[in-house]
From TrEMBL, chain A:
<dbReference type="InterPro" id="IPR013985">
    <property type="entry name" value="Ald_Fedxn_OxRdtase_dom3"/>
</dbReference>
<keyword id="KW-0408">Iron</keyword>
<dbReference type="GO" id="GO:0051539">
    <property type="term" value="F:4 iron, 4 sulfur cluster binding"/>
</dbReference>
<dbReference type="Pfam" id="PF01314">
    <property type="entry name" value="AFOR_C"/>
</dbReference>
<dbReference type="Pfam" id="PF02730">
    <property type="entry name" value="AFOR_N"/>
</dbReference>
<keyword id="KW-0004">4Fe-4S</keyword>
<comment type="similarity">
    <text>Belongs to the AOR/FOR family.</text>
</comment>
<protein>
    <submittedName>
        <fullName>Aldehyde ferredoxin oxidoreductase</fullName>
    </submittedName>
</protein>
<dbReference type="GO" id="GO:0009055">
    <property type="term" value="F:electron transfer activity"/>
</dbReference>
UniProtKB/TrEMBL annotation, chain B:
<dbReference type="InterPro" id="IPR017900">
    <property type="entry name" value="4Fe4S_Fe_S_CS"/>
</dbReference>
<feature type="domain" description="4Fe-4S ferredoxin-type">
    <location>
        <begin position="104"/>
        <end position="133"/>
    </location>
</feature>
<keyword id="KW-0408">Iron</keyword>
<feature type="domain" description="4Fe-4S ferredoxin-type">
    <location>
        <begin position="74"/>
        <end position="103"/>
    </location>
</feature>
<dbReference type="InterPro" id="IPR050294">
    <property type="entry name" value="RnfB_subfamily"/>
</dbReference>
<keyword id="KW-0411">Iron-sulfur</keyword>
<protein>
    <submittedName>
        <fullName>4Fe-4S ferredoxin</fullName>
    </submittedName>
</protein>
<dbReference type="GO" id="GO:0046872">
    <property type="term" value="F:metal ion binding"/>
</dbReference>
<keyword id="KW-0813">Transport</keyword>
Length: 627, 154
């Protein structure tokens, strides 16, 4: 009998067309706790190093966690884990919506996808059953059309569809997987991986429940969470949506603008959350089971950038299709967001590739000949929207942009390298790492998937407020008494930030509720109460933290096998230059090496290589990952 | 004055928490398919909780007298000892808020949780409320009129 988990893994081989249901081993699952932790173990053990992410041998794991689909207020998530074709690293792309919960209600915690179908297919998972069905008629359709067609064909409006659009079919290296029309497993190119496997979509629905071991205790723990979240320190996020951050960040001088040339956008008011909510919001939308409802549902009813109603845009998108490109037209941004959703594109990498192209054009590194006579000028809203179309279809200059900033820079030469803003090939998200040489800068440098603001995501909030997030009982030192140097203090603190954040990743929880302190967020202690009541296991916060450390180390080992070491934990050159204007003028990152030294030391990793020492891996029971 | 359940779809974000609380309260598991409140979430932008209004049509058609009105809450409740799961009530319900629970093989419907409905207690945005009957009636009139006019604001 399983409580909390569905207890099953579904294996789908697209080459042979065979599917297999495997029972999960309780003690092994508990060791990793689930979701990306267990997915890391699966991919590390089942996929040897050096497999081309777009080859049939590459595997993909769709992972839910123990809180996915439960009443846990952050429990709407699933994560897609794979080796990224954009970066060559470990990648996990998280998404909300209904897909994760419905996969679990269908009876599966994990889906492992292997091989490559001879012709386009989609996979239909429902109530413990799985069918691989032809999708030739869906190939070439966008995400919205695909979703509508499948709802009609399967005659079930309650299904959740995760599909790729034209971008994934065409192999755009940062193509996304979009579920429920407007929720993206965005980063790292899972759309291209699906495309390479001839896999158009996965459809799920289920009517099974999640059994709760101790229903009364569980209800009490959830009621406690609901009460604590009344004091949540980031209460403005639901009110305005994540896009509310545009005004806040701009007033602090940390709104990335013009390809990170600066961090202050004079016209931020025109693309702010306040403007979006006043002029374009239809309603608020929540992911499955979430009491937060940070999602916006918007449309542009008339004009040249008209769009039907669609989820978004989120903060990241507004900055990336807006300020990063110098664009101040919110209608164009909503249109760009819509196009990214229907074509299946990561809005962050899309925006950054466009901004990088604009800077290269400004510097004469891209000429009218290459752009087919289209000037790529900062702030040109129509050009931004046109480029989104061209990228998705790999047309003209779009074929260059579809490769992402790292590969574009390699083709455009050393002068372009100066302007290439990525870590390990992943374009930076919309958070400025320079002001005060933050913990966020360290996170960008060391995160397994490259420049990442999400996995885990306490770094920016730590930089703002030094919240303890329930880590005090584990000795969160601020400032650490024995360390005088501030940069080294930040390195040590990131150990706590990363491991606490990783707890969300292994539970399948959205990160948003994990920031605060006792009485104002879901702390590791409260997660332990929730998980214990759900599963009937006596789980402590310390056990969650150890499982998180296991997961974090294993992802590092995955990357090590692909050749990534300390030499790759670096920031774009741009960040050693000062922010030129705005409230954070003068800030730059000067202390990365010191932060890295302290962080590796605190993690038990070798300072020279930046890799986990064998004794650390033994301590965590990860002997199989010792090289 | 007694209370009734009232829904304001303009406040619903489609989170389905009411369904989860309902199934947890009634059956000790989390399963929106075993809920006695139903959230219809469709595109574009439709999020509507559908609830039993305890009209009592089902009482009249039950051949075994298994549906009764609770004297304290005025809820229409299923007597599980009498119900045979024949489904006559499901057929007659104009709102589709009755179902046969597959596990127990009897009719399942909202019983107002004996006067403390879990869905209303836990709705994060006040889209489902358990309110004084006069206030609720006024709200129902408003929503009904607006729906007829096709003007429910989203």
């Amino acid at each position: 009998m399983w409580y909390g988990f569905a207890g099953k893994l579904l294996r789908i081989n697209l080459t042979s067309g065979e599917t297999k249901v495997e029972e999960l081993d309780k003690s092994e699952l508990r060791k990793y706790m689930g979701c990306t932790g267990y997915a890391a173990k699966l991919l590390y053990q089942e996929m040897p190093g050096g497999v081309d992410p777009l080859a049939p041998e590459a595997k993909v794991v769709l992972a839910t966690g123990v809180v996915t689909g439960t009443l846990c207020p952050s429990g709407g998530s699933y994560e897609v884990c794979f080796r990224s074709p954009l970066t060559g690293t470990w990648n996990q792309a998280r998404s909300g919506g209904a897909f994760g919960p419905k996969l679990k209600y269908a009876g599966f915690d994990f889906v492992v996808i292997e091989g490559k179908a001879a012709d386009p297919v989609y996979v239909y998972i429902h109530d413990g059953q799985v069918e691989i069905k032809p999708a030739k008629h869906l190939w070439g359709l966008n995400v919205e059309e695909t979703t509508d067609t499948l709802i009609r064909e399967l005659d079930d409006p309650e299904i959740s569809v995760a599909a790729i659009g034209q971008a994934g079919e065409n192999g755009v290296l940062y193509a996304a997987l979009i579920n429920d029309r407007g929720r993206a497993a965005g980063r790292g190119g899972i759309g291209a991986v699906f495309g390479s496997k001839n896999l158009k979509a996965i459809v799920v629905n289920g009517h099974g429940g999640i059994k709760v071991a101790q229903a009364k205790k569980f209800a009490e723990a959830i009621e406690k969470a609901e009460q604590w979240l009344n004091n949540y320190p980031f209460g403005s996020i639901p009110a305005l949506g994540t896009v509310g951050l545009v005004s806040v960040n701009n007033s602090l001088g940390i709104l990335p603008t013009k390809n990170f040339q600066t961090a202050y956008f004079e016209k931020a008011d025109q693309i702010s959350g306040e403007t979006l909510n006043r002029k374009y919001q239809i309603k608020r939308r929540a992911c499955y089971g979430c009491s937060f409802a940070c999602g916006r549902y918007t449309s542009v009813p008339t004009g040249k950038f008209v769009t039907p109603p669609m989820e978004g845009p989120e903060y990241e998108t507004v900055d990336m299709l807006g300020a990063i490109c110098g664009v101040d037209d919110l209608e164009a941004i909503i249109k760009g967001n819509y196009l990214c959703n229907v074509y299946g594109l990561d809005t962050i990498s899309t925006g950054m590739s466009i901004a990088f192209a604009m800077e290269c054009y400004e510097k004469g590194l891209l000429t009218d000949k290459e752009t087919e006579g289209m000037p790529l000028r900062w702030g040109d809203a129509e050009v931004m929207v046109k480029l989104v179309e061209k990228i998705a279809h790999q047309k003209g200059i779009g074929a260059l942009l579809a490769q992402g900033v790292k590969r574009m820079a390699e083709q455009l030469g050393p002068a372009a390298e100066e302007a290439a803003v990525h870590v390990k090939g992943l374009e930076l998200p919309a958070h400025e790492p320079r002001s005060e040489s933050k913990v966020l800068a360290l996170q960008y440098a060391v995160s397994p998937r490259g420049a990442c603001h999400m996995h885990p995501n306490w770094a920016s909030t730590w930089d703002f407020g030094q919240l303890d997030c329930g880590m005090k009982e584990f000795g969160l030192p601020w400032p650490p008494a024995e360390i005088q140097d501030e940069s080294s203090q930040k390195g040590v603190v990131y150990r706590y930030v990363a491991l606490q954040g990783e707890i969300s990743e292994i539970l399948g929880a959205c990160i948003f509720y994990s920031w605060g302190g006792e009485g104002s967020c879901i702390t590791p202690q409260l997660y332990a109460e929730i998980v214990s009541a759900l599963t009937g296991w006596d789980v402590t916060a310390a056990e969650l933290l150890t499982a998180a450390e296991r997961s974090w180390n294993l992802k590092r080992c995955f990357n090590a096998r692909e050749g990534f070491t300390r030499k790759d934990d670096k920031l774009p050159r741009r960040f050693s230059q000062a922010i030129p204007n705005g409230p954070s003028a003068g800030a730059k990152v000067e202390n990365l090496d010191t932060m890295l030294d302290a962080y590796y030391e605190a993690m038990g990793w070798d300072k020279q290589t930046g890799l986990p020492r064998p004794e650390k891996l033994r301590e965590l029971g990860l002997e199989f990952a010792i090289n | 004055m007694s209370k009734v359940l009232i829904v304001d779809p303009t406040l619903c974000t489609g989170c389905h928490r009411c369904e989860m609380w309902c199934s947890l309260t009634k059956y000790g598991e989390i399963n929106p398919s075993r809920s006695n409140v139903y959230v219809i979430r469709r595109e574009p932008g439709v999020d509507v909780p559908v609830i039993c209004i305890h009209c009592g049509l089902c009482i009249d058609v039950c051949p075994l007298g298994a549906l009764k009105r609770d004297r304290t809450t005025d809820a229409v409740v299923v007597d599980s000892d009498l119900c045979s799961g024949c489904g006559a009530c499901v057929k007659v319900c104009p709102y589709g808020v009755l179902r046969i629970d597959e596990e127990m093989d009897i009719a399942a419907k909202c019983d107002l949780c004996s006067g403390s409905p879990a869905c209303a207690d836990h709705c994060p945005h006040g889209a489902i409320r358990y309110e004084d009957v006069r206030k609720a009636a006024a709200k129902r009139r408003e929503l009904w009129a607006m729906a007829q006019a096709g003007k429910i604001r989203s």
